[in-house]
Write a structure and sequence with these properties.
Two copies of one chain form a homodimer.
Chain A lengths: L2 H5 L4 E3 L10 E6 L13 E16 L7 H9 L4 E11 L5 H19 L6 E8 L6 H12 L6 H10 L8 E9 L2 E10 L12 E6 L5 H14 L4 E2 L9 E6 L10 H24 L7 E9 L2 H12 L2 H8 L5 H9 L11 E4 L2 E5 L2 E2 L3 H11 L3 E7 L5 E8 L3 H6 L7
Parallel strand pairs in A: 4-5, 8-10, 9-16, 11-15
Antiparallel strand pairs in A: 1-6, 2-3, 3-4, 3-10, 6-7, 7-8, 11-16, 12-13, 12-15, 13-14
Helix pairs in contact in A: 2-3, 3-4, 6-7, 8-10
């Protein structure tokens, strides 16, 4: 869950432009009034490649899958795509067959407007669950967006803004990547602030690249990158029905990803974009006031490390303590104890920003040391290391505290 | 999770007296100043039988077990006990070997003062994790309590009050139970409001009865009763290090539990006491404003029904929606979808107080119906039924909403 390692690589240079950073990609947003209440704001966008692109996706593991997830998975069977249509304000989830038909109609409308095949269009939706899409409002918006596609960074920013729901900021990332004497670009956008939990992306994300990447390798690289980034974040432990990460590679840079070195460079760059966007989602977690980088090491297996990490990162009591600047290692140890992983409480060490709070399962600080720990827990970002001393399993997660503001924001969904 | 069925039985009569309701049981509380801050309040108590009693216990499944849990389990090997020593203000958890020695010293002090063997004393602690017990304060309190034991209901109430931490009310229950021409009594007390989650009791509870019950059957009956009551409640999904349910049966009523009829009567009564106390804990959940009786039916197995029930009952988003009077069936279906149980979203029905909110995985109410559902979700108590229509697995849980007040109360543990 570290973007710094990858992004500090001398082959990776941060650039602007989000989904339009890569050559041959265009985007545009529109305001359709999809939300039932509130002022009109942009709520739909299209990201399109000027030429056919190989494509891959990773989707929610929730058994309740929204219509756009079902449709995009089907359209990805070919390993190719030209455009992604996204909307906020309505998740088109739990909408049954009518919902699936509505998603198909949206994809068709975009395809007609763009002059491509419907199965070259992928779709993503986010917003309220259980409400049918307002097609009469959306179809004109789709045509409007399709007719105003632009390659400018401003268009990418407008697209990133149009998919925000409870997000407070748009989320973009992009890199220029050197491979030998040549270079390609890769960039993306994401949305997400609530209903964020490990095990698939729990948000929407579109990543574009002008590298030429075979679909099979694109799938593999995307799965690995999301496993190390989006699947290692949690805000509230709730895994959404709509989580989608899509990536399109159109080859406009003329850089082909074939050799092991090229594959490594591409995979690193893809992971860097994913890591940046994943961190942006956690930092924007609904009502949260802290980002915690949680590392569990010394677990009997990597799966055990993830179990312990998730139990801690999703514990209401641990998260409340963090919100109160309480470096409560007892609650952390308690959560580790019910995680379902191998654990010897008498061997567990817990540290905040490298300062031990507990050693061998017991507190190890005097009053002065406790005051230091409280100062760390009062910071906006800090690290927590839990060492089980049982094996070599390790997991890293980014998580948040749990604040009164989170509850306030989620008392009702009518505001989405 | 229904006390009404059992307690409305014509053989069960609600009576007063808590842990002193059964004949031959005495109790007393003391104020030792165990908490490091705040005004002096009673924080320790002893519940004792005048004669040796058979005894059984059920303990937390957390791998991090507090010292009193380890000691009480050991003392229960004999199937006998005479007294229970409980304290609030300090959980004696994550305190290592010194903590275990301290628990032993407390049990010894109680045994000396009561004139019984140390291994006849069970111990329970609740409060802050990771702090050693203040023995110099506690030992005089133990002697004081041991010398002031009384059979009066007021003494039982004082004991129930002394184990409160974040509880806002003491929790007692008791029944007179007719078995043929004879009768016995059974009663108990419990504490718990936070760190409450299924899979062991997540709280402290002492149940006394004057029936004569063989230890083996007592163990079996207690395990079954807690499985159906305390293990079916959740406030925040955090399973504690100290959860303990103890029961002592001293035979003072001269009613022996031997035949199948007698065993059924005893098991029903035990479950009624457990159900009353479990409901009292949920109703007193930290900062909560609603009690929700959640039933999951039609699951492929009972285990699947529990998985779905826990995912829903512990979902932050579902709980926040309830706090906002939002009958958000979409969040419920989302949680069911990631529970790890077999599920066909298109078959799921969700109802509030018998009114269908979703049918076949889709909303089924017009604006008027939605208003009715919102009225139900605004009540202090309501039921939610989730029918998966896949099999015969069923689970019933009592849970709460998640409020800003819960977060406020748990920002720091220094107030416990």
């Amino acid at each position: 869950m570290s973007s710094s390692n990858s992004s500090s690589s001398k082959n990776l240079k941060r650039i602007a432009g989000g989904v339009n950073a890569a050559r041959g990609f265009l985007s545009a947003a529109a305001a359709c009034g999809i939300k039932r209440t509130g002022p009109l704001r942009s709520d739909l966008c299209i990201v399109a490649s000027e030429t056919p692109a190989s494509a891959a996706g990773v989707f929610t593991t929730n058994l309740v899958k929204a219509a756009p997830v079902l449709l995009s998975r089907r359209h990805l069977d070919s390993g190719k795509a030209r455009a992604v249509l996204l909307n906020s304000g309505n998740a088109n989830a739990c909408t049954g067959t009518p919902g699936l038909r509505a998603a198909e109609q949206c994809a068709n409308a975009a395809a007609v407007a763009l002059g491509i095949h419907a199965d070259e269009v992928l779709v993503c939706s986010t917003g309220r669950i259980g409400v049918q899409l307002p097609l009469p409002k959306m179809l004109p918006g789709i045509r409007e967006a399709a007719s105003s596609l632009k390659a400018a960074p401003a268009a990418a920013l407008a697209a990133a803004k149009s998919i925000m729901t409870s997000d407070s900021v748009p989320k973009q990332a992009a890199y220029e990547v050197r491979v030998g004497a040549k270079s390609f670009r890769i960039g993306g956008m994401a949305k997400g602030a609530g209903m964020i939990s490990p095990n698939m992306a729990t948000m929407l994300c579109v990543i574009t690249t002008d590298a030429a990447v075979p679909a099979a390798f694109l799938r593999k690289a995307l799965r690995e990158a999301t496993g190390r980034t989006f699947n290692c974040i949690t805000v509230d432990g709730d895994c959404s029905t709509n989580d989608t990460v899509l990536t399109l590679a159109n080859g406009a840079s003329k850089v082909a990803i074939r050799t092991a070195t090229e594959k490594k460079a591409f995979a690193d760059a893809l992971q860097a974009v994913c890591a940046d966007l994943a961190r942006a989602i956690v930092a924007d977690g609904e009502g949260t006031s802290r980002v915690i980088e949680l590392t569990v090491k010394g677990a009997r297996s990597e799966a055990d490390a993830h179990r312990v990490g998730r139990a801690i990162a999703n514990s209401q009591l641990v998260k409340c303590a963090w919100a109160g600047s309480d470096p409560n290692w007892g609650r952390i140890l308690d959560a580790a104890g019910y995680a379902g992983a191998a654990l010897d409480p008498d061997k567990v060490d817990i540290a905040y920003d490298g300062i031990k709070a507990a050693r061998n399962g017991m507190g190890c600080q005097d009053a002065k040391g406790e005051a230091t720990l409280r100062k760390i827990a009062a910071k906006k970002e800090f690290s927590v290391l839990v060492d089980l001393h049982l094996g070599k399993g390790e997991a890293r997660l980014l998580t948040t505290d749990l604040t009164e503001e989170y509850v306030r924001l989620n008392l009702s969904e009518f505001s989405l």
